[in-house]
User: Which sequence fits this backbone?
């Protein structure tokens, strides 16, 4: 069975994440959504509002993966420099997109369409709009790069609107089984399980809840029958250590 | 006034963050702490449990910044491959650290010190231990790279214990002032403020709370008197637009 893989990277742009002021909320959303539609998120980066840093990351990530999603830096203020950096990364001019200008004019009205707000109609030449149903000012797509807002509600709405455009691959399915068993106790059997199922990815994530240590074990792969067989072996392994397999994550 | 700058990067290692299973909680903690002690976090990356990806990121980031902090992948299971990848990145052998072996022996007892648990005593040759007051198994430091656990409580305790070792630079101070004013309305004046204070970093972060739009404006810099003067000009700018400056973030 050959596997069809489509890959992606996420680039979070903004000083506020690196200074600790803002807790990013977009990476987990994009990671979950991409996984669910069959796109594999292979890398994420956070860079500051520094043109050289943005341009370098964009060019490295768009070359390395099928898709790149950026968040942040597309508002109307001087520190919103993503569009001009993407244009530089692609070596194309930054233009005022007529359709975006019309949308902004309708939304703000001629009188309130400040020069700053018009900045939000700027896109690299050749880009197409990504719709913003929340606050109108659009994101854009240029080749395999999607440029989204940093405000979580807008980022999500933009992604939800564009995800139908994406080429997707085989979905990575997963089974989670937890147990109150020490990682150091199950590690040997778990490693042997991984060796028997090279087509699966076997992860182990320790937890400490309600005063008890344990771990969640996650099997991931595109082959559902291998996944089922591996999960059954995992349940047997857990029982052989005197513990009871818990389906899914442990209850809070 | 010359500025003394010490830089850092953070590398989060783990499939679970990229698949969406786990919401990272370490980046924001490290970002906030590093900022508070005078180390500038310049970049963060997330990579999967893939040796080539880890080694490449470690070598790029340790060369580019004064410090690199990694989180994740130092437990006892087969998917914990950070120590061996760091050894490869530095081109040194992976050895069993005698002091770490003693700590683990004391903690688990001879009978329970499985081969898997002993894996947690592995470090690249030349590394020194980073203490783990939560669950004993240590992290380590090799040259400018600090290798920390992924479990948030352990990551934090490790960082708190090691931060006294770090060389620090001038602290970046910040002033936050918010207002119920559209970014597109204040953008022009804000850009002019940034131009008048090139030594400050002027950020604008929109919010929507209790049915009202607004933005928080953050001035950052190492020169306290410039910061105070810039903040006063910002308050005047906000008032000139008919709004009232709110010190700090807006109330929830």
Assistant:
């Amino acid at each position: 069975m050959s596997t069809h893989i489509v890959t992606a990277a996420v680039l979070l742009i903004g000083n506020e994440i690196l200074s600790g002021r803002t807790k990013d909320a977009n990476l987990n959303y994009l990671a979950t959504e991409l996984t669910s539609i069959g796109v594999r998120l292979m890398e994420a980066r956070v860079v500051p509002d520094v043109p050289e840093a943005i341009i370098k990351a964009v060019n490295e990530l768009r070359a390395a993966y099928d898709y790149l999603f950026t968040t942040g830096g597309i508002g109307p203020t001087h520190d919103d420099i993503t569009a001009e950096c993407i244009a530089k990364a692609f070596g194309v001019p930054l233009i005022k997109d007529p359709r975006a200008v019309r949308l902004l004019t309708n939304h703000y009205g001629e009188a309130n369409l400040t020069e700053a707000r018009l900045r939000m109609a700027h896109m690299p030449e050749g880009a197409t709009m990504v719709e913003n149903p929340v606050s109108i000012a659009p994101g854009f797509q240029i080749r395999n790069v999607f440029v989204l807002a940093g405000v979580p509600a807008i980022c999500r709405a933009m992604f939800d609107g564009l995800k139908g455009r994406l080429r997707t691959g085989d979905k990575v399915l997963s089974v989670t089984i937890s147990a109150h068993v020490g990682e150091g106790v199950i590690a040997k059997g778990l490693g042997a399980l991984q060796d028997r199922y090279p087509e699966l990815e076997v992860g182990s994530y320790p937890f400490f809840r309600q005063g008890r240590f344990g771990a969640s074990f996650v099997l991931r792969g595109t082959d559902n029958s291998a996944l089922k067989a591996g999960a059954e072996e995992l349940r047997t392994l857990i029982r052989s250590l005197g513990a009871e397999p818990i389906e899914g994550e442990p209850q809070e």
